[in-house]
Design brief:
Helix 4 links the parallel strand 2 and strand 3. Helix 14 crosses helix 15. The protein contains 15 helices and 7 strands.
Length: 328
């Protein structure tokens, strides 16, 4: 308990109980399973991942309908409302596993702990995936991955390409992905024309889609035919997504093309100056209204509903659950 750290204790002890879920949904629920291994629980990232798998087996997590591999932000924090959402939607028939790799805030971790974030993502995914593959195909839980900010960067490091990702998992939710994330960058650069950089369309949206609002996501739920669904959430005003050292000397596509709806129309690119502006914006990316900047919790319910094929839910039901979680 001491070894999981403050963020780990908050994650494990937080979230809805079966009684909470039943009171909101009116349906019988299981107690959601949450597994977290802190930096002080093991001597290496590989040992952390092995310990996490042992705990998944001890808690019978592989018997749940959904298994979510979550990579935290730099401090070890996991966005609570996003995790609550998938547990409410699926009546607690879920298990979420995470390991900590740093104590530092994400913006600082991104400068000094990038490698550790990626190592955590790879080691945890490989350890869980190897155990998951041993199960009979008909008995495997639906395998999902999740990451916000540096957690998104770390999680995507498990895959060599978009094709590799789509083949390996059943779905993924990535929020506010840092600009330096290689897989995200490859997908964004290969976007279909004329879709803009801030909301690209990739391979006609077959398996991988981008969204910035609940309206974007809702339009995908009924039209998304792929078995594997990967959803990137990003706001045009999120400085974590758009900060790049290339801003020093190069005008970005997101300012060159039709800009996003919440980007100030007076913003212009100036060498070095724009780089400083976006760098400073990163420090206050969470000090804005929800649904802008680096805040994504208001789209969690719609996101998981789309990714996990919940076509039978009405939009007003999703909105009601989302409102309840935000107020919880």
């Amino acid at each position: 308990w001491d070894g999981v750290g403050r963020q780990g204790r908050t994650f494990i002890a937080g979230g809805p109980t079966a009684a909470d879920i039943e009171s909101v949904t009116g349906e019988n629920s299981l107690e959601p399973i949450r597994v977290y291994v802190g930096v002080d629980n093991a001597d290496s990232t590989r040992e952390q991942a092995s310990l996490a798998v042992d705990e998944l087996k001890r808690t019978n997590a592989f018997d749940r309908e959904f298994l979510i591999i979550a990579i935290p932000t730099g401090t070890g924090w996991i966005e609570p409302k996003t995790m609550d959402a998938v547990e409410y939607l699926h009546l607690g028939d879920t298990a979420t596993v995470a390991i900590q790799y740093s104590y530092l805030p994400s913006w600082l971790s991104f400068l000094v702990d990038q490698q550790r974030a990626q190592e955590a993502g790879i080691e945890l995914f490989d350890a869980v995936y190897d155990e998951w593959k041993l199960l009979p195909e008909e008995d495997r839980p639906t395998l999902l991955t999740f990451g916000l900010s540096l957690g998104s960067f770390g999680s995507q490091g498990s895959f060599s390409s978009s094709r590799d990702m789509v083949r390996a998992i059943d779905g993924a939710l990535y929020q506010g992905t840092p600009n330096d994330t290689q897989l995200w960058r490859d997908i964004t650069d290969a976007r279909d024309s004329p879709s803009p950089e801030w909301q690209p369309v990739y391979n006609q949206g077959e398996s991988i889609r981008f969204a910035s609002s609940n309206d974007d996501i809702a339009s995908s739920i009924d039209s998304w035919d792929s078995d594997t669904r990967v959803l990137f959430l990003q706001h045009a005003s999120d400085p974590i997504v758009w900060f790049s050292f290339d801003l020093i000397h190069q005008k970005p596509d997101w300012l060159n093309e039709t800009r996003g709806p919440d980007v100030n129309s007076t913003v212009r690119w100036y060498p070095f100056i724009t780089f400083i502006q976006i760098a400073v914006d990163q420090m206050i990316g969470n000090s804005v209204p929800v649904g802008h900047g680096h805040l994504y919790e208001n789209t969690a319910v719609y996101s998981w509903a789309a990714i996990t094929h919940m076509n039978d839910w009405e939009f007003d039901e999703l909105a009601s659950l989302q409102k309840n979680i935000l107020e919880r």
